[in-house]
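in:
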């Protein structure tokens, strides 16, 4: 897997959480003969992902840039992220704020082409919701997720003027992953197996969402404190920016978004059954 990812990891920086996917991409870039800058973003006094990022970067011998944020600075980026993405979905905006700060830091330090670990969780069934499906359903669910996947890093990169590369989304990598039985890959087992030979401490990590590993999930409480609800906080920013979205009586039950797919609203984050 590392050799395959190396074919598509031609970059001068990697957004690096210290999780399984970004560790594989960073290792692949080094195997390619590159010495990319590893860029890590977290709230001050977080310590969830940061210890892994520091350890892996040191073992690989690559430079590590750590951007530590305070709450007000992180909140200050939310209008920029809302404007670029054109939505007020709290989970999307908060997670993508981490990416925004990482790309901004990479650009500041001279990077022009930045790799991400986007796609690993979708291909190798890393998200917890995959566990709810029977073995017979998993392949269909995975293929549906992959056919619809969207990664904000590309839009954020275009806005900032930096090229974003996601090696896991290369067609050859996608075809290989989808050729494997979903039962074999559930929980990112093949990726963990590869990493055990390099970084066993990362291979054994529980899946930690970016917002939690970076402690950007602190923003939810702050938004609720200021507006009573994080959706309302972000929706007010959305309106202040002069943005609008199509609505329909048959749209999202919460925000009316016309292109609600019946289960999840990308605009506001409403999920049926939750």
């Amino acid at each position: 897997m590392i050799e395959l990812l190396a074919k598509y990891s031609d970059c001068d920086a990697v957004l690096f959480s210290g999780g399984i996917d970004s560790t594989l991409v960073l290792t692949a870039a080094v195997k390619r003969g590159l010495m990319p800058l590893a860029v890590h973003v977290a709230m001050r006094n977080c310590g969830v992902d940061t210890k892994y990022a520091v350890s892996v970067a040191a073992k690989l011998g690559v430079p590590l840039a750590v951007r530590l944020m305070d709450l007000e600075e992180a909140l200050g980026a939310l209008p920029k992220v809302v404007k670029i993405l054109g939505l007020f979905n709290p989970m999307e905006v908060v997670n993508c704020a981490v990416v925004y700060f990482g790309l901004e830091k990479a650009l500041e330090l001279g990077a022009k082409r930045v790799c991400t670990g986007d796609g690993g969780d979708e291909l190798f069934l890393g998200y917890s919701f995959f566990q709810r499906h029977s073995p017979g359903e998993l392949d269909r669910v995975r293929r549906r997720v992959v056919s619809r996947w969207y990664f904000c890093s590309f839009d954020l990169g275009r806005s900032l003027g930096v090229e974003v590369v996601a090696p896991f989304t290369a067609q050859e990598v996608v075809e290989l992953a989808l050729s494997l039985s979903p039962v074999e890959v559930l929980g990112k087992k093949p990726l963990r197996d590869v990493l055990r030979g390099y970084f066993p401490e990362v291979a054994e990590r529980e899946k930690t969402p970016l917002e939690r590993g970076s402690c950007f999930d602190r923003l939810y409480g702050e938004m609720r404190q200021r507006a009573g609800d994080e959706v309302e906080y972000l929706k007010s920013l959305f309106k202040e920016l002069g943005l609008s979205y199509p609505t329909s009586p048959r749209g999202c039950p919460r925000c009316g978004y016309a292109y609600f797919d019946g289960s999840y609203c990308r605009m506001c984050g409403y999920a049926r059954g939750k």
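note: The chain has a mean pLDDT of 96.
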